[in-house]
Amino acid sequence: MNTTIEQPLHIVVMGVSGSGKTTLGAALAGRLGWEFADADDYHPQANREKMARGEALNDDDRRPWLETLHQLLADHVRDEKPVVLACSALRRQYRDILMNGLEGVALVYANGSKELIAQRMRR
């Protein structure tokens, strides 16, 4: 009998801004001894400039960013190097791009009440 427990080698911590995904993801990666990546660090310069002006990103802005993150995950899957990625990934289509064809990737949803998120955002 096979008693091996299959577990993901890669985790995407997702949630809205202020949900704690970066804090949770970094702590989880530290605890597991895995690499940690914050999706915000992978935005192209044009996205950074747009957000700095207070403009919301649209799907066309996000697509190359999500494809870059997919490649990051794909490289880790290929190399069997565990990673925790903090990424909003709120829409199903974004998660589909991130995880397209990849096995061993789990999603963790960082959630909180509206009041808690609002309090964190004010800080």
Key phrases:
4 strands, globular, 123 residues, alpha/beta, disordered N terminus
Report a brief summary of the structure.
It contains 5 helices and 4 strands; from the N terminus they run βαβααβαβα. It has helices spanning 21-32, 45-52, 59-79, 92-99, 114-122; strands spanning 10-14, 35-38, 83-86, 105-109.
Task: Report on this structure.
The chain has 123 residues and is α/β, with parallel strands linked by helices. The chain has five helices and four strands, in the order E-H-E-H-H-E-H-E-H. The protein has helices at 21-32, 45-52, 59-79, 92-99, 114-122; strands at residues 10-14, 35-38, 83-86, 105-109. The chain has a four-stranded parallel β-sheet with strand order 2-3-1-4, sandwiched between helices. The longest helix has 21 residues, at 59-79. It is globular and about 40 Å long. Residues 1-5 have low confidence and may be disordered.
Furnish the topology, listing elements before pairings.
Elements: E1 10-14, H1 21-32, E2 35-38, H2 45-52, H3 59-79, E3 83-86, H4 92-99, E4 105-109, H5 114-122
Parallel strand pairs: 1-3, 1-4, 2-3
Helix pairs in contact: 3-4
How many angstroms separate the termini? 53 Å
Helix content: 40-55%
Strand content: 5-15%
Structural class: alpha/beta
Q: Determine the mean pLDDT.
A: 88
Largest sheet: 4 strands, parallel
Count helical runs.
5
Run of helices and strands: EHEHHEHEH
Shape: globular
Pick out the low-confidence regions.
1-5
Strand order of the largest sheet: 2-3-1-4
Rg: 15 Å
- Count of extended strands: 4
